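Quick log. Single chain, no ligands specified.
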Amino acid sequence: MTLADLSGVDDPGLPVEDISAAAGERTLRKVACLGGGHGLFATLRAARGAADHVTAVVTVADDGGSSGRMRRELGSLPPGDLRMALAALIRDTPRGHLWEKTLQHRFGGHGALAGHAVGNLILGGLTEVMGSSIAALDELAGLLGVRGRVVPMSPEPLDLEAEVQGLGDDPREVTAVRGQVAVASTIGQVRRVRLIPQDAPATDEAVQAILDADLVTLGPGSWFSSVIPHLLIPGIVDALVKTTATRVVIMNLVAESSETNGFSMERHIHMLVQHCPALRMDVVVVDERSVQSSRERRHLERAAERLGARVIYRDVREDDDRGRFTDRHSPSKLADVLREFGTVTGDSDREGDHHASHANDATVVDR
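-> predicted structure:
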């Protein structure tokens, strides 16, 4: 795409892939999405078509690639997941596509810039000029026409450390593995993770986004390195407990080949409870093809009850336009699910109870 391709283009922000709410459909005012990486990207793509305003609350423990280099050289927050969240929220227009591609573009070659993403460098420069990573994110979001915000879950870069079993001669031996990349790629089985420092604060902006939201989502994504870290920040957990939003866990479509290899959906839920006994959620969204046997569903539903949640099964898997399903969430299908927790477009009482009854919705939990 060139500038000539964009000349004279009216850019009203109307989506090319129509996942926005039509007249008479349910929509949401404010959504807060917690996660990181490609899992958060998928959720944000869905949320931008289901809500008026979306805030991405992003993990800040990445220590690999361009993000790791900038973190070590500049002492800054790792920008990669923050950049991806911004890219996910850019408007689905020709100009938006250009900027999304630019932010995600990585320099080639073999010099000092090789492997760096353009968006990472822009965020790093803006942060140094403005003196604040959140101010830089807000400025870039404004330039890109984002209807929402991207905020880090903590104001300081964090380290991830995992207890991993199966790395030594004794399969029962537990080894400490430090660093998000090392945890995500370990060949052993992750038993538990912790953040360093353990008393890391939450950003005020992340806490407020959770408290102000109609809907809060957690997941999908790398369970130990992108999802669970949010539950290790006391301020985030406290906000999840206090918020009046409907709190939704979006499950992965399949277990990952590294972090959660061999994990059932039930065990994914148990890991949330194990790491954060105080956590309470309302709904667990599971792809209807991921768990089909009645026995597995019973076990999953009992696990969800420990969170105070009930499970709903929906078709949220993307296909390849030839009838074959992928291991990615479909933004349009997931947007339809998120709208189930909203109010009807055009309702006069948009500021009212967002837990209002839904004719076919057995998923809403009144608290």
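Residues 118-130 form the longest helix (13 residues).
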